[in-house]
């Protein structure tokens, strides 16, 4: 399903015309509303990446949602992840991976699950936390390539987007959920995951520090563990002494590669 510019115009117009027919006077702000939403749609390549149920239909390297400067209502189709968690999620004890997360109800494919929340660190600081790296999530530009490649593997048919030049920008960022976080910190890795991580911007414009939003990539039945692919590179994770660290993967998938890193 495709959403063009016209759909957004209609969507905002529908809201505006209701108000307009009640107030019976021109509304300058409404024109601005339309323009703002159209700008947000343009930033997404002219499409709304979500359907009317708020499920993602166009995974992208980066999704722009409407933000605080847009005058559209909270129900705008370009405000999904910022509305927060919709499903009743449960933290449960797994057999071999300590705590994990599952949903009490079924989840339709493309649904937003939760954000990976934590302390925002520059990579240099994250590297200093080498001995305590269980909850680190590498984000931003450096992550985009891996994300896009991962998504195209997981979602055949997804067009790889043209990467934007970032003018040699090298600062990378990491989210550390070790001390501060939400339920996202308990979601385990699987080699056959049912979630994937999507970069989203809505409350600022800095592409180096997008929100990391987890979405369902399948219809997920109730009580099935929620997992995403951590995308570690094998033999690239090192301890404080520079030695290669190895961690066995216990995801239990028939496609398991045997190691997390
Ligand atoms: C972000 S935490 C996930 C939640 C964690 N299970 C807990 O109880 O807090 C990541 C850590 O969970 C464990 N883990 C996650 N997925 C795993 C897997 N497939 N196999 C083995 N350990 C896993 C590893 O220790 C990993 O460093």
From TrEMBL:
Localization per record: Chromosome
Domain Post-SET: 245-261
Gene Ontology MF terms in the entry: double-stranded DNA binding; histone methyltransferase activity; zinc ion binding
Ranges where the SET domain occurs: 87-231
One Pfam family cited in the UniProt record for this chain: Pre-SET
GO annotation, biological process: methylation
GO cellular component: chromosome; nucleus
UniProt entry tagged with the keyword Transferase: yes
Name of the featured protein: Uncharacterized protein
Provenance organism: Thlaspi arvense
């Amino acid at each position: 399903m495709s959403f063009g510019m016209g759909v957004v115009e209609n969507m905002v117009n529908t809201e505006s015309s209701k108000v307009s027919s009640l107030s019976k006077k021109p509304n300058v702000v409404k024109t601005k509303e339309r323009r703002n939403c159209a700008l947000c749609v343009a930033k997404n390549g002219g499409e709304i990446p979500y359907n009317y149920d708020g499920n993602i239909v166009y995974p992208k390297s980066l999704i722009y949602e409407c933000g605080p400067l847009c005058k559209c209502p909270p129900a705008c189709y370009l405000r999904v992840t910022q509305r927060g968690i919709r499903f009743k999620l449960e933290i449960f004890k797994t057999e071999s991976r300590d705590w994990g997360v599952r949903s009490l109800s079924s989840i339709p494919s493309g649904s937003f699950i939760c954000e990976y929340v934590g302390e925002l660190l520059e990579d240099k600081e994250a590297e200093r936390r080498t001995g305590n790296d269980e909850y680190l999530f590498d984000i931003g530009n450096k992550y985009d390539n891996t994300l896009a490649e991962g998504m195209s593997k997981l979602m055949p048919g997804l067009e790889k987007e043209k990467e934007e030049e970032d003018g040699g920008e090298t600062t990378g960022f990491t989210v550390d959920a070790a001390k501060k976080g939400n339920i996202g910190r308990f979601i385990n890795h699987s080699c056959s995951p049912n979630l994937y991580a999507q970069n989203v911007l809505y409350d600022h414009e800095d592409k180096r520090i997008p929100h990391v939003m987890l979405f369902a990539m399948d219809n997920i039945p109730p009580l099935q563990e929620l997992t995403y692919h951590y995308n570690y590179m094998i033999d690239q994770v090192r301890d404080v002494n520079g030695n290669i660290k190895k961690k066995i993967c216990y995801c239990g998938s028939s496609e398991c590669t045997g190691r997390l890193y």
